[in-house]
Specification:
alpha+beta; five-stranded antiparallel beta sheet; transmembrane helix
């Protein structure tokens, strides 16, 4: 007797499952990085918005900037200038500074300028790349500085120095200057921008409060645990602090695009299980073998 040829439907199912698996793997491995690393993506929804016309001289008096905002200031060579701006989880902040130097006839030599960025705990944050320190020649008109920070994480270990949601301080100063050039007038412009990098850098937890100076005191007063804030008494403190926060508020921390990766991985695992079963179940009982044999 001739056996019945194997149905083509099984091979069609296998091909369909194989194509689905390959398409899903390609989507997960290429789509998200392309969005995160696209250099043409908008750095900030607010754009390059005009900002304040002065700078602080200490951490406490730092001038507040919004995300995507620029600020200018007139200062003297040798001054320390401070600004502060907010950054939330899933964002990669970038700081750029331009120093307009005095006329070359008034200068005595080269100078070296540096921009540093500190988080809400005043921990100096390392730059991923950029020109954080630059030397200006004696005849240079301007000097350009930049610092691209690591992506801000929603949570990290207490001993780690990872960027966390909260305030970020910019400090601009000259680190090497001839003594005769101290006090010469300079013009400074700083620009901040943020880029969304998605949930690939998220941690497994969230902070109870962003690292913003004074936010814990304001929250405590709001709950009425340390004073008569519920009655509107003198111990009440406003929730909004001087350093500001993102326009759409701080991230809640429960939603991240890692959920999409989790769901996609579950779907691919289910498809792989069906595909494996179709390969290993066999052809069943041959048609020429009677039942019960």
């Amino acid at each position: 007797m001739r056996t019945t040829p194997r149905p083509r439907r099984t091979r069609g199912i296998r091909r369909a499952l194989t194509g689905t698996l390959l398409a899903g793997l390609t989507l997960l491995t290429t789509a998200s990085p392309a969005v995160a690393d696209d250099p043409s993506a908008s750095a900030s929804p607010a754009g390059d918005e005009a900002g304040p016309t002065e700078a602080g001289t200490t951490f406490r008096t730092a001038t507040a900037l919004k995300q995507g905002q620029s600020g200018i200031a007139q200062a003297s060579a040798g001054d320390y200038l401070y600004w502060v701006f907010p950054a939330d989880a899933g964002q990669r902040p970038t700081v750029r500074a331009t120093v307009k130097l005095p006329e070359s006839a008034a200068r005595r030599g080269t100078s070296t300028w540096q921009v540093d960025v500190y988080d809400g705990l005043r921990r100096r944050q390392a730059c991923m790349y950029g020109h954080q320190t630059r030397k200006a020649a004696a005849d240079a008109a301007t000097v350009e500085l930049s610092c691209v920070l690591r992506p801000v994480r929603s949570w990290s270990e207490p001993w780690a120095n990872d960027p966390l949601p909260g305030s970020y301080y910019i400090r601009l100063a000259v680190v090497d200057l001839p003594a005769a050039d101290l006090g010469l007038p300079v013009g400074v412009q700083v620009r901040t921008s943020t880029k969304e990098v998605g949930g690939s850098h998220d941690g497994d937890g969230t902070l109870s409060e962003p690292l913003v100076p004074g936010v814990s005191v304001a929250s405590t007063n709001e709950t009425g645990e340390t004073g008569e804030a519920d009655d509107g008494g003198p111990s009440a403190a406003p929730r909004t602090v001087a350093t500001g926060e993102p326009e759409d508020g701080w991230a809640s921390g429960w939603w991240t695009d890692r959920w999409l990766w989790t769901v996609g991985g579950g779907v691919l695992a289910a498809l792989a299980a069906v595909f494996g079963y179709s390969l290993t179940r066999g052809r069943g009982r041959p048609s020429h073998v009677p039942p019960g044999v």
